[in-house]
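Here is the promised in-class demo. Please do not try to memorize the tokens; focus on the logic of going from shape to residues.
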């Protein structure tokens, strides 16, 4: 199991502050494009939604409105596909598809399909999105476009100020003025520089304004066009169930392999040796005694292997004395000197204790095999309704959850019980891994 990636690229460290990089970052321009495209899409969607919903509702008395409303819902599920794709491409959102329209046991005909659409909460949320997104898209467009255009226009004012006296017949931007009266133009070098400075301030503020406005878009897309909380939770539970099943199967295969290749093979050899010793007992007692002595040593080794196997399944010290002594015993067997600190008022549920123990065990094995560390620390404490485990080593770092094995597998197992794995491992070290588990008693 490889948890440390020796070729992982070092994290990029920018010397330019984020506030100065933001106007030129791809994220700001993608969000700006999202706002620009949002207005025509929202306008067309709102017009269609208003017209089709009004006609469908008006024709309900003739029963023609029922299939028309179903077609309207189907149309806006298609609009939702477009909006989710736009959010993924321009806002960088990771959003799942909503629950499909299922007819269940009601058949596959037009009537069943129409009824399923009308009963589908996701379909009505797509239609609601068309009504709610339009006013917000208009507001965002009317705020962002002038803000963005004015900011860049003022910032670049020294580059195009010559256009005004040449083509507009005035020396600069007119701040105020009256016919035949006083006028104020921004035409002197200090005024031009001050205008450019104001433009710079607007340009620097624009990405953060954009981020705030598109944050509302993110909320609407996720809340109205994504799966419901119930569906999301069901998908998480299904994923967790698969993870638990796969982990249990892997553990059973490991136990079977260890028994077959270890204790079982040793016991078979022991039985053969004892059989040979029995045959030589009368013919050559001295040789038989020597063989029995060797068999006695094999028994001790078999018992040791079985004890290690039982400890790998669930150590007796964990059941009898709890996490603190069990982890101290684990640290004593680790090849890297390890300090254990626990601050637990009571013992959590046995299942959580077991997961915490094997999490620390696996991470300490990684440290021993891959980190080249000379010291590690393990801290456990309880806060609110969470059990927190933090493991730090002074190795060369570069730990990663990429690749689907090692730390990635451990993160999946923790996630299956509503846990969390956080990794901080810059190249060169140190590495800090924090695991969170629910506190259950």
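The designed amino acids, position by position:
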């Amino acid at each position: 199991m490889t948890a440390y990636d020796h070729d992982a690229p070092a994290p990029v460290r920018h010397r330019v502050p984020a506030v100065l990089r933001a106007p030129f970052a791809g994220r700001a321009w993608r969000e700006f494009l999202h706002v620009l495209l949002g207005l025509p899409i929202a306008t067309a969607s709102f017009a269609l939604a208003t017209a089709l919903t009004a006609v469908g509702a008006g024709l309900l008395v003739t029963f023609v409105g029922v299939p028309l409303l179903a077609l309207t819902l189907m149309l806006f599920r298609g609009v939702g596909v477009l909006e989710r794709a736009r959010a993924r491409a321009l806002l960088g959102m990771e959003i799942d598809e909503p629950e499909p329209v299922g007819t269940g046991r009601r058949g596959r005909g037009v009537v069943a399909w129409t009824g399923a659409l009308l009963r589908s909460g996701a379909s009505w949320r797509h239609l609601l999105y068309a009504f709610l997104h339009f006013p917000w898209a208009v507001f965002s467009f009317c705020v962002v476009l002038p803000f963005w255009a004015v900011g860049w226009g003022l910032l670049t004012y020294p580059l195009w100020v010559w256009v005004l006296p040449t083509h507009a017949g005035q020396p600069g931007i007119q701040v105020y003025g009256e016919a035949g009266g006083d006028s104020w133009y921004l035409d002197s070098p200090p005024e031009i520089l001050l205008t450019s400075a104001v433009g710079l301030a607007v340009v620097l503020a624009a990405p953060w304004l954009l981020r705030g406005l598109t944050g509302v878009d993110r909320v609407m897309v996720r809340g109205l066009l994504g799966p419901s909380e119930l569906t999301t939770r069901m998908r998480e539970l299904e994923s967790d169930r698969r993870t638990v099943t796969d982990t249990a199967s892997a553990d059973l295969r490991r136990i079977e392999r260890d028994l077959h290749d270890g204790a079982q093979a040793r016991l078979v050899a022991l039985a053969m040796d004892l059989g040979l010793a029995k045959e030589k007992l009368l013919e050559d007692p001295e040789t038989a005694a020597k063989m029995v002595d060797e068999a006695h040593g094999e028994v001790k080794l078999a018992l040791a292997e079985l004890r290690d196997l039982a400890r790998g399944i669930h150590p007796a010290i964990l059941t009898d004395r709890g996490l603190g002594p069990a982890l101290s015993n684990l640290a004593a067997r680790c090849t890297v000197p390890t300090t254990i600190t626990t601050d637990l008022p009571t013992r959590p549920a046995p299942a959580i204790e077991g997961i915490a123990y094997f999490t620390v065990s696996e991470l300490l094995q990684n440290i021993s095999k891959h980190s080249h560390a000379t010291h590690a620390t393990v801290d456990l404490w309880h806060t609110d309704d969470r059990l927190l485990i933090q493991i730090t080593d002074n190795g060369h770092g570069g730990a990663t959850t990429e690749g689907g094995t090692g730390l990635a597998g451990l993160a999946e197992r923790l996630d299956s019980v509503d846990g969390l794995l956080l990794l901080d491992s810059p190249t060169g070290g140190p590495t800090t891994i924090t695991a969170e588990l629910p506190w259950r008693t």
